[in-house]
Amino acid sequence: MGNNKSKVKRTLSNSSKKHHQNSQYLLSKESESRNLDKEKELTYYLSNHNDEDIDRQHFNHFFRKHIFQNNFSVPIEEGLIQGGCKVLDIGCGPGSWLLDLASKYENSYFFGIDIKPVYPNEIKPKNLEFCEADMFNGLPFPDNEFDFVHQEVMSFIIKADQWNYVISELIRVTKPGGFIEIVEYISPENSGPVLTNVYKTHFDLCLQRGVDMSLIPNLDKIIESHQNISQVHRDERSFIIGPNGGKAGLVIQDIIITFNTSDLATDDISSKKGISKEEYKNMILRDFKNELKITKPKLKVCRFWAQKNA
Length: 310
Ligand SMILES: C[S@@+](CC[C@H](N)C(=O)[O-])C[C@H]1O[C@@H](n2cnc3c(N)ncnc32)[C@H](O)[C@@H]1O
Known about the structure:
Layout: H1 2-43, H2 51-68, H3 77-82, E1 86-90, H4 96-104, E2 109-114, E3 128-132, E4 146-152, H5 163-173, E5 174-189, H6 193-208, H7 219-224, E6 229-240, H8 246-260, H9 263-273, H10 277-294, E7 298-308
Parallel strand pairs: 1-2, 1-4, 2-3, 4-5
Antiparallel strand pairs: 5-7, 6-7
Helix pairs in contact: 2-8, 6-10, 9-10
Bound molecules: S-adenosylmethionine.
């Protein structure tokens, strides 16, 4: 009997252990799937190894170069031509900006880091090196190393409570007297209802991850609050998205459409909005395009730049 009782006890305790293990397993599966969801949501903001994504980023680079008629606002061109300058690009993606600069300024040295190695590691100029690294773990370089540190289009990725750390790292690896420049798009003004809806969806999805895009127009104030920086400059350009903005307007229209209609973005955003993929694609490919024919939404791109105190 005693034996039977303890057998029952053992069986019960084994079964409760199993139950506990099962629930632990289910909980860990649940959190794994939540993480996968998060990863999936982030994926279309990261660089992906597909031609469409890489082409879009190259186009985006040449679009911004066209809008500013140059590749940077910091006063370093003479130094780059003379040679010996060291330049770092953080979150360099396929390396469009760096490839452009490294081929033009052959006597200076260029470095790019990205969490995803989508950059061309084999076919590249000799004065350009890429490295796979997560900037949130600290930049893998010593203090006071670079003459110019650049970061472009990361507003979808950096969380509100990470900006100060990121900026402090940019400043740390910059030489005294060197320059930092951060380049970001600022949400459009005068948008019609479809564009407003598309931007609000991204804004809300970002907020769920702790990314607050409403901080971006005030990045100069955030940079200025750091030690070793005295004055932050803003170099801002605006342009109209769509056919009312001429050729440039059509190029940025295409960039926005390809970004929003990638398979990953379509899957994620349509399910978040509770509409079918077809309805979502119609919204972007038909309604958005039609709206742009009769509206003049103004998008801004802003370079925030500063010199590290000598
Ligand atoms: C929108 S893309 C911009 C790429 C490039 N700066 C440009 O303007 O074409 C953002 C880039 O940041 C990279 N990235 C995201 N998180 C990162 C991290 N923690 N550390 C380094 N790079 C990161 C992504 O892989 C992606 O290439």
